[in-house]
Design brief:
The protein has 5 helices and 5 strands, in the order H-H-H-H-E-E-E-E-H-E. The chain is elongated, with a radius of gyration of 30 Å. It has one domain. It is an alpha+beta fold. A hairpin with a 5-residue loop joins strand 2 and strand 3. Helix 3 crosses helix 4. Helices cover 37% and strands 17% of the residues. A 3-stranded antiparallel sheet has the order 1-4-5, covered by helices on one side. Strands 2-3 form a two-stranded antiparallel ribbon. The longest helix is centred in the N-terminal third of the chain and has 45 residues. It starts with 5 loop residues before the first helix and ends with a strand.
């Protein structure tokens, strides 16, 4: 009769190979499952947050455009103001969450403004000026700062290049695709106000 005590049990080889024992071992399964699911979950959360922040930024740009348009409409801002000072004032309106560099007032890199007067509302351009088609880069060659005088039809248009960080949403929400770039990274925010100035 053989000894079936604890020592003999410990010397007994377990049945099955190493692979079978590894598959049957569930001690670290929760950690592995979390590691597999954590990355896509975090990417989805970050993408959602970035979309929310971009939406808030777009609303801020629209509010700033309305504020600056009201100042033009009431005569608080006229053609006597320089384009640089106008851009500085506009940057101050959006600085709470949108960046304007130290040289932004002189050399636009993110914020672009276009202030012009027209003889009739029907002559106001409706399309976004682009280079090379509907998804091309912004065409700023015709942008001016030339608000009209009293009782003139004027538009204030603001464009902001919002950089999209999350790769997951970048192909779907970017709408600026300059020629020669393999991966677009900017979402163009647009805000427009059209009005007739008061008889100030």
């Amino acid at each position: 009769m053989t000894d079936a005590g604890p020592a003999a049990v410990s010397r007994r080889k377990p049945r099955g190979g190493v692979l079978r024992r590894l598959i049957g071992d569930r001690s670290g399964s929760s950690s592995i499952e979390f590691a597999i699911l954590a990355i896509p979950f975090l990417v989805a959360v970050v993408a959602s947050l970035e979309t929310f922040v971009a939406f808030a930024g777009e609303q801020l740009l629209a509010t700033a455009t309305e504020t600056m348009a009201r100042k033009v409409r009431t005569g608080e801002i006229t053609a006597a103001m320089s384009k640089e000072d106008f851009r500085k004032a506009f940057c101050a309106e959006i600085s709470i969450m949108m960046t304007c560099s130290a040289t932004e007032a002189k050399n636009a890199s993110k914020l672009f403004v276009d202030v012009r007067s027209f003889s009739d509302f029907s002559k106001i351009p409706a399309a976004i000026p682009r280079i090379g088609g509907a998804s091309g880069d912004l065409d700023t060659s015709g942008f001016k700062f030339a608000p009209g005088g009293p009782t003139t039809i004027t538009i204030v248009r603001a464009y902001y290049r919002w950089e999209v960080i999350t790769d997951l949403v970048r192909p779907f929400i970017t709408n600026l695709r300059p020629a020669g770039t393999s991966m677009p990274k900017d979402y163009l925010m647009v805000a427009t106000a059209a009005f007739r100035t008061e008889s100030y």
